[in-house]
Amino acid sequence: MPRPVWSGAISFGLVTIPIKLLPATEDRSVRFRQVHLADMGAIRNKKICELEGREVSTAEISKGYELPGGDTIQITDEELESMPLPTAKAIDIQAFVPAESIDPVRVATGYYLQADGPVAAKPYVLLRKALERSSKVAVAKMAIHGRERLGLLRVVEDAIVIHMMRWPDEIRDPAELAPPESEMDEQELEGALALMDTMSTDGLPDLHDEYRESLEKVIAAKAGGQPRPEAPEKEEPAGQLVDLMAALNASVEQAKERRGEPATVHEMPKKKTAKKTAAKKAAKTAKNATLKKTAAAKKTSGGRKPRSA
Asked: Hey, CA dihedral for 208, 213, 215, 216, is it positive or negative?
């Protein structure tokens, strides 16, 4: 069981639930160290005081804040803990909202909320069952890791999980990244939906970290003096598919083959070629020009037919 990273209480209305915060995830990445190539000695980062030019110990280090004028003041842990903040030791629930109203881009690290002692058991279960029955999640405020954060409380099996959330002003505006609108053919959209249907499953598929597994094999081989595992042969692409409908059709076939289904796909309607579209536009432009000239001529003659000599 991981160590608690925070302790306090959940507060909603007049109900208080003592809890502990435990990490809900763990980092399984393979870690490397910086080493000296000549002798494999570890390279360490020393903490050097810029003014004295010497290495300082942890006991000599504190938090500091640089003022606009350049001066620096010390901020102690006691000053941070004694701030007049109602969420300093509480997960203060602000509202209960539908889960689908929360943009996933705002959801970050998750923690399990563990009931802290027998007195917390009943209100903990009460909150969990209320969240389950209402099909809602709770939005709360709390102070952790030196700042006030938003939290999202939801139920996972028999436990309550809180996800740290980003504040609205921490989310970048995606408008500047969005590509310009393009003409969309209905057949293309139907082809994309057909591909999505072929790739759909009832739940999250059984996925695993292939990069980490391959890296562990390389490390094990090198540590045991064995030859490096050979990389699998890369499949050569059949050729660049510049036609979107052809790419969608081929993708559906590939998805069905991977699922062990017959790779027979209904022929999707072909898009009109760019050449035909360009010719059609040119003809339309010429027709419009002729109509404009005719209208201008009628306006000049006052709408009357020219007299014969």
From this structure: positive
Residue-wise pLDDT for 154-190, tens only, equals 999 999 999 999 999 988 888 888 888 888 788 888 8
Strand segments (E) across 68-178: 72-75, 90-98, 107-115, 136-144, 147-156, 159-165
155: left (phi over 0), alpha (psi -120 to 50) or beta: beta
Q: Which helix (H) or strand (E) holds 6?
A: strand 6-12
Residue 153 in contact with residue 140, Cβ under 8 Å? Answer: yes
pTM for the predicted model, two decimal places? 0.64
CA distance 106 to 87: 20
Could you write out the DSSP letters of every residue in 12-41?
A: ETTEEEEEEEEES----PPP---B-TTT-P
DSSP letter, residue 148: E
CA 265 to chain centroid, in Å, comes to 33
Helices (H), ranges, the chain:
77-81, 121-134, 186-199, 210-223, 244-258, 274-300
Q: What is the Cα–Cα distance from 121 to 116, expressed in whole angstroms?
A: 8
Which residues, in sequence order, are CB contacts of 287 under 8 Å at separation 6+?
none
Please tell me which residue, 188 or 134, carries the higher pLDDT value. Answer: 134
